[in-house]
Structure of Beta-lactamase domain protein:
Amino acid sequence: MVVKNVKIYVLGEDYAGYNSPFLSQHGLSFLIKIEDESEKIKNILFDVGTYAKPILFNMKLLHLDPQEIDAIILSHSHVDHTGGVVEMVKAIQKNPIPIFAHPHIFKTSFALDPEFSLANSLTESIKKDVERSGGRWILSSDPIRLIEGVSTLGEIKKEEQLEFEKTPTIKLYYIEDGRLVEDRVEDEIGLYIETRKGLIIVSGCSHPGIVSMIKKAIHLSGVNKVYAVIGGFHLIDANEDRINKTIAHLKKLGVERIYTGHCTGFKAEYRLSEEFGERFERLHAGKVIEI
């Protein structure tokens, strides 16, 4: 069963747009308003940016009430997608409010180049603060159906990744059994929505590869038509070959519309705009996508 209407509000993004009253920040946050065939509405908050205050400010401008949010999805552990979680849960004022994420979202991930820096912000203390404020953690590496026609992707396993997407575009590490291990950001999950126009795939940073995530959504849903892909593609550090292969696969899959920004990078955005023309749109805080 497909959903009737989808409206996606960009609450957090690195860019606020020209002559805009909205606030930008490094990070990403979407409010996804889904109406099913019975006209029942579900509001899903996908990621919470680095800070909650700009998100709440932008929600006010868009006449959105945080207390109407039904669930939170945290795409992966990095601070620009999880940093605002405590304040957002407090603003939602529901007990419980389910928070869907991968079981490894609390790992300590860090970069070594150009110097040691932490990539994630979620600690045991923050986990407990969220719980005290009403958050209920739903941690699964498997896909979870939220409502009919809407599901998380679960972990994109290495064997599910296309060969050219198996190498991360960013070098991160974590400690396992006292040893340094390369972090391939296996904790990233996405979301797919089945609509009359085709699939909508929502991603945070697409560290496992945006094409691999789309293919997982097609496999899980059984729907081959992809209408829109929305989110960060993390091609900012990618070489030209990877960008070209990504675009070639997106076209081969018949993706009709691309909405991207955040970590995608100017070079990749330029190439996507060249290839998709008016079917490409740059994300910005305050943008509303109606499907």
